[in-house]
Amino acid sequence: MTVSSLGSRAEAESRPDRPSVTELRLAAFAAHRRAGFPLGPLSLFAGPSGSGKSSALRAYEALARLGGGAELDEVFPDPVACVPERARPDAQRRRGFRIGCTADGPEGPVRLDVAVQAEPELRIVGERLTAGGLTLLETALRDPSRRSVQAAWHTAGSSPVTRAPLPDDRLGTPLLPLRVAGKTDGQRQVLAAAEQMVVALRSVFACDPLPRSMRTAVPLGAGRLLRGCGNLAEVLWRTRSECGRRHGLLVDAVRAGCAGPVHDLLAGRALGGIDGTVRALLDRGDGLRTPLGRLGDGELRYLALSLVLLTGPGVLEVDTAGEVPAALQTLTVLADGFDRDLDVRQREGLVRLAARMCERGHIRLVGAVSDASWAAGVGGVTVVDLEP
Q: Sign of dihedral through CA atoms 374, 375, 376, 378?
């Protein structure tokens, strides 16, 4: 066996089993220009207001939704807001933005870069999927009068590439399994890279708990936590009986982050239960139950984010790759304003909980904070400092 083959085997064995996004690239997006951000299992974008924290998370979420097959106008309802402020239109009055990411996994690092035209009409004008220095998929807008782009993907058969039109209103990478036969080694390489990218992007839960919506009773439904966590009481009604171990961990976390004694966290029927609504309560352990409506904003955000970190895709409102076993997927939580309304004790407790959960490999977190100096002593935290 040659030295190079030994190296290749060692490299393959060191690759992660679960695909995950390890870099976010904002070549031209909102306030970002030629920016590349490394992402670890637990990453915090830190910087003052206006530094681009929220727009970085917005770009990540956009890539995730595109990777799930969403149409462009659903992902970017206001595309002009994503165009860099100083970007000048070309001779055809066109302006746009460019975003991309790298997904690491069994196939090694796979890069996806996307160019979007925002004006005069919204469309994808270029996409490139690469791995190991090889271009596996490339699209380009050849005829602006047609609602399609010309795509070429790696074949490595009798013809080096295959060419065909793809729609310009959605990402081409998740469409490849419907277009590529997988008969040649090159086609199988394309499919494997596309699957790794899609799996890495699909399982994303973007959340920003809204305390005011968590204070009221809510009707029973599917029991899947929504983005603003307003239906937290409904989710607790379900999860308290489904997984006693995780509920115990949640109670421990709440006990550490909420004022006063906490014996349990539960959901009960609202006033008489006639309308079928439930509300969440803190059991103080002496017959006193405190409705969540009495808690402060910081306590409510801390509680909701703890629940998100301790649960999974079956409870969160997230679009997972159903064709891939759960053991080979990683849930990524995007938390804008991760430290908003939290006191020192709460934010340190929450980031330590996040670090423990992310260390296990089945969950990752990308958050935005105004300042990350308080997280410096926590192992496993990647801090991305942004300057305005």
A: positive
